[in-house]
Specification:
The chain has 318 residues and is α/β, with parallel strands linked by helices. The chain has nine helices and eight strands. The chain has one domain: Arginase, Chain A, CATH 3.40.800. The chain is 33% helix and 15% strand. Helix 3 runs parallel beside helix 4. Bound molecules: manganese (II) ion (MN) (2 copies).
């Protein structure tokens, strides 16, 4: 079998070459590929700062730092899996619904094979068309949603599509198994107390940052696993889940969040869920001194890749 793997950093320096994710080959193929990195450079749904359209490029650039072995999961992902950097999906700046159509259409065609997509945002509005494409392939899926915000507002500025609304729409469009879905990390000021109730009324389990501080990370992991069970799951990671001290390059930062180390550890602890896709969204490079937010996002993606390899390695050893 042909295998697509990153360029060898021992043979060619990591600062060299075209900036694909982790220096994977940029090939628009779906043959002999386990996962595809896919950029979605859209900020048409941003409500405060804009510039998330630059996110995929920034994450790709700094991802050159990543090396081939993950000591925390004790796995060299590319011993088991093949991956590509597909490039970016088409977007339409300023016209979110047109962008949605294009994102859904092209992602759907990628998903005609058994590829697991790892999408780089873009603001969080992009997760809605992603989930539309995922549903066509897999039916409704469970959602694991790490974010400082629930993103379940009904409308923003009188409009239904925005990075504050995708999971309200996703429930309405029956894209989710909402009884298996969980939102984690909500914190910060909100528009009114009714916004606390909306996600619960929609059927999500919601665990706020405050609650997590009380129950601890171990109990959080248990609750996520219990909720999701063996359902097919999409993991959506809004970088503002992390404290802005660690991830300042984002559109709607909220203080009092998690550390990078806590987040990476949480992802590893959730390695045995039945994932069908991932995204990491809301990286905003112009507010990202020293590229630390993009670096964190790249490492989150590396954990996702490692999880895919972990699952493959278990299948092989069966
Ligand atoms: Mn979000
Ligand atoms: Mn957020």
């Amino acid at each position: 079998m042909k295998k697509y793997v990153p360029a060898d950093p021992i043979k060619s320096p990591r600062f060299s070459g075209i900036k694909t994710f982790m220096r994977l080959p940029h090939i628009k193929t779906t043959e002999e590929v386990d996962f595809a990195i896919i950029g979605v450079p859209s900020d048409a749904g941003a409500s405060f700062r804009t510039g998330q359209r630059e996110g995929p490029a920034a994450i790709r650039k700094i991802s050159a730092l990543l090396r081939g072995h993950n000591p925390d999961l004790n796995i060299s992902p590319f011993d088991y899996i093949s991956g590509i950097d597909y490039g970016d999906l088409p977007v339409v700046p300023g016209y979110i619904e047109d962008g949605y159509e294009k994102i859904e259409k092209e992602l759907s065609s990628i998903l005609e094979t058994d590829i697991i997509p790892i999408l780089l945002g873009g603001d969080h509005a992009i997760t809605l068309p992603e989930l539309r494409a995922i549903k066509k392939k897999h039916g409704p899926v469970a959602l694991v949603h790490f974010d400082a915000h629930s993103d379940t507002i009904d409308e923003y500025f009188g409009k239904p599509y925005n990075h504050g609304t995708p999971f309200k729409r996703a429930v309405e469009e029956e894209l989710l198994k909402v009884d298996k879905s969980i939102q984690v990390g909500m914190r910060g000021s909100i528009y009114s107390d009714k916004h606390l109730k909306i996600p619960k009324e929609l059927g999500f389990e919601v665990i706020t940052t405050n609650e997590i501080r009380k129950i601890g990370l171990e109990e959080l992991v248990k609750r996520i696993k219990n909720r999701v069970g063996d359902a097919k799951v999409f993991f959506t990671f809004d970088i503002d889940f992390i404290d802005p001290a660690y991830a300042p390059g984002t559109g709607t930062p909220e203080v009092g969040g998690f550390t990078s180390a806590e987040a990476l550890d949480l992802i590893r602890e959730l390695k045995d869920l039945n994932y069908v896709g991932f995204d990491v969204v809301e990286v905003l490079p112009s507010f990202d001194p020293a590229e630390i937010t993009a670096l964190l996002a790249a490492n989150i993606v590396y954990e996702f890749i490692s999880i895919i390899a972990h699952k493959k390695s278990k299948e092989i050893s069966k």
